[in-house]
Protein 1
Amino acid sequence: PFPSCRPATHEDLRLVQQRKLFAAEAQAFASRQLDSLQLDIRLEGAYLVLDGHLLVLYFSADERVDFRPLVKVVAQHYGKKIELYQLNSRQRAQNHRAQGRCGLECCCTAWLREFPSVSIRMAEEQGFQLQPEAITGVCGRFLCCLRYEYESYLEQRQRYEELRRLMTALPRD
């Protein structure tokens, strides 16, 4: 599909490794700057794009934070364009490859890419206790699996009701 695609050479792999090391060092530098700038930000990761001109820093914060001073300091230090992206709670869990309460890797890490809405009604109908610790995932949001198990739950409940109707319609001896 792409005429410029080719197998990676040893030089390509060396460059990728260098960029990863540079990004890690830049993340460490930026983290040190956060203390001196008194910014309430947690840096979650860094990435140097392929051409090497743009450094992307991923962060999380509890409140809205003006991060422009950090961008200015890091850009001056490295002479590169800097972009910061704020991660939401699900993206943070995904980034840390978190483990869900079921013992498996979180759905958002393993396979889930879109996050359809989840409602309290879904939890109620599936018999969950309506306590926050019972229906929230490691990211602090409603369990994604409530949505995916909901359709199966409704189908099983419908089959059970049909079977029950059939059983009550049978003549008794």
Protein 2
Amino acid sequence: MTVLTLTVGAPAAGGSCVAHTDEATVFVRGALPGETVRATVVGSIKSGRILFARTTEVMTPSEFRVTPPCPVANRCGGCDLQHVHPAEQAEWKASVLRDQLMRIGGTTDIAGEPMATAVTVLVVPVAGAEPGLGWRSRATIHANASGAPGFYAYRSREVVPTTHCPVLVPALQPALAHRWPGGAQVSIAASSDRVTAVGDVGRSGVPAGWSSRAWLEQAAVGRTWRVASDGFWQSHVEAPAVLTAAVRQVLVPRAGDRLLDLYSGVGLFAGALAEDVGITGRIDAVEVDTTAARLARRNLHDCPQVQLHNADVRQFLAERTTAQPGEVADLVVLDPPRAGAGAATVRLLTQTGARAIAYVACDGAALARDVRTFAELGWHLATVQGFDLYPMSHHTEAVALFTPDNAEATGRAVG
């Protein structure tokens, strides 16, 4: 087993920091920039020129190092930044996002502003909770062979049992004191009216007072949303309000606008922006998942300006841009999966005639790849704002605004 003494450099994607030896680049977990650590090599690629290592001893700690709030922090794979002060986690994530936009996206500035100030990540507090804790309202737990609940270890299917997870909202904590069927996988979710557990468990097998129903209702942005218990809904309790406000701010929708809501899920953005475009406007919400589309139909039954389409986004765009090139929409909001929108979809988006596109990204590298494609097609990244909606982990959410380089060419000025 190889142990290295390393001086640690900048954060990298995935929760590690970068260090160097004479022969290799080393990605070190459990370290902070500026520290000197001893780290055990746990893997390698490219004939040993790239190494992966785990910190085993901190020789010169950073001023931002803290004691992790969770006793299984070094074994559970869910939270990889618990050793970083909560306020510094936002700067860590901003540094990674800047690097991705520059290195992968080819961006050197944003609307003339240097990356150091143009790209920031905002902390999103939760009322009544300590910084970085008590924010997660949805999770997947796993039981070991004897039924003890926990979470997978880092890059492993080994279950790390635990009786408490500090990032979960209080209502979900009983799941970790419950005895589940051996080997069970259970999706747990909490809302103001219900706590659910679905998966390898029957109606009688959930904690007292919990439900095994396949759906629950979430209150957000002045509406009530029916959501699948094991389907997609933002995990952070403040995320729906934060992200819809950010999208509204960058798009500035107006009465009469035609808006595309792509990868629309259960209808969050369509419902939040329906009042902005008014009864004279139109929102086409497109979602390929049948369950989510069905729930959206129920959630938005009182919004006549919203038209719902249970369809593949790329196919929908191809049909619309072929039939109405340059006249499909005034505005677009898209919230793609972690892989991003992709070059083919981006190409179609630039043919819609939209004056602005708001892109909700959950992966900085995927966003950066799409930034490069937008630029090649004559669109630029006008703004980007990161949000720390996954505290204690390396994940970041961001809202980016794209506008055409020649806005007059669309016939619709921005703003």
Protein 3
Amino acid sequence: MAWIENYLWLIVILPFAGAALNLFFGRYFPRALTATIACLTVFGAFCLSVAAFLLLREQKTPLVLNLYDWISVGNFTAEVAFKADQLTAIMILVVSGVGFLIHLYSVGYMAEEKRFSRYFAYLNLFTGFMLILVMAKNLLLMFVGWEGVGLCSYLLIGFWFEKRENAVAGMKAFIVNRVGDFGFMIGFLMLFLAIGNTSGVWTVDVDEIKDLLELKGAAIGGGLLGIVGILLFVGATGKSAQIPLYVWLPDAMAGPTPVSALIHAATMVTAGVYMVARMNFLYVMAPSAMAVVAVIGALTAIVAATIGFAQNDIKKVLAYSTVSQLGFMFVGVGVGAFAAGIFHLMTHAFFKACLFLGSGSV
């Protein structure tokens, strides 16, 4: 089983390979081949994720793979590097496992769609970017996945762009996410500069940031770390549809139902929760930021559930329910119960995806 550590990159690259094949050659393929390529690449990623999970259980130490130096300027180096620890293992199993089932469901759901191959290419592309986000060893690579899932959500929500409201919903999701991402970027750069100026070490590696904060956190000061934590959380409010940036998610129901299940229940909207859990060491050192996370999460849970009462469209009811459940996840990570927040993330991915996929039958 130890071989999987050297092939972690395959988990990420398989969905991208499926996306490239279907995007460039899908129009020449019969539909059965397009669907087979899309489903098999994600299933392959799931099988490799299971192998990584089993190896993690066996050896208890994270799996790390450094592929190559991506950016190298002076004494600063950012690598394309992937890491699989317990948190990552849960996320890759959810993303590839639920993702595969939704791909499979889509084969029948989109059978009459004229842009069949393009739909599956976008779905594969989304899965690939989401896997980059959760497996990235450094914040810069995580940001690539972060922006990539935002792009794919725009492509998938506005997939039936012939209807004006669908195109507008896609643009709304894209723009609201950019607002959140701007906050994330400023927070990330402030953290980078604060650590660099205090310790003289310029790094974006999550593990190195954790070690440096444990050494130099007092010198940086809880106030600055609190601001960084809140700014990173602004990015999470965009991705994970928290007050005030939740407005895009109910409109995003304009996309095909499997897209709603994949993006708005199982994967993309949980990226913010994952990010807070991944940066738990920062939030533990900044109680003010944790308080903001918990309070916004609690407010969102109450407000979204209340709005959901007044909806008539079943997908809108499920959308507001999703926003509310994400609020509960943020309450969990905001009070320091990171394991509980991630546990709810995993259970929610399954039951809410099932509710979305079953909504048409209802």
Protein 4
Amino acid sequence: MVDAARRRATYDDVLAAPAHLVAELLDGELSLVPRPAMGHTVVASTLGAELGGPFQRGRGGPGGWWILDEPELHLAADVLVPDLAGWRRERLPSVPASAAYLELAPDWVCEVSSPATTRLDRVRKLPIYAREGVQHVWLVDPIARTLEVLALERGRWTLLLTASDEAPVRAAPFDAIELDLSALWSGVDPNA
């Protein structure tokens, strides 16, 4: 039986969380997961670097984006920390230097899966991203070495692409360049 008197978590709970955990508020509940493992961190960092040059800096690509690592997002009453997020500069012309978080939903989010976060990313966070109008979500699995690309269509997620490292891919919304997925897992041992 659900305890109707259970207190809804607040941002103070996020702030009070231990530093070695990632704290998020999802539908009024505090979610605490361990900081990512090194393979997860390498994959997220490499992907950010791969997209940052052409899309944030305009080197070899169209520019016009902000690509941020682990931004804190305040979306309605939810607080989320995706692995990567991107905003088109026409929606977010500049990033406020002194802000601790952003309240504008991103145009793109990437969640890098780990055993501790896969269910959370798919079951709890995807509906929030849809509700807030995030147009694209990438789900990257460094152990299976896969990329899933989702697009929001009429309030529902549509799978546009599932890829692994066999060949370069073009993945929305960054399909102006080919992405070599094998570069993401280079040096990461999925069995260790």
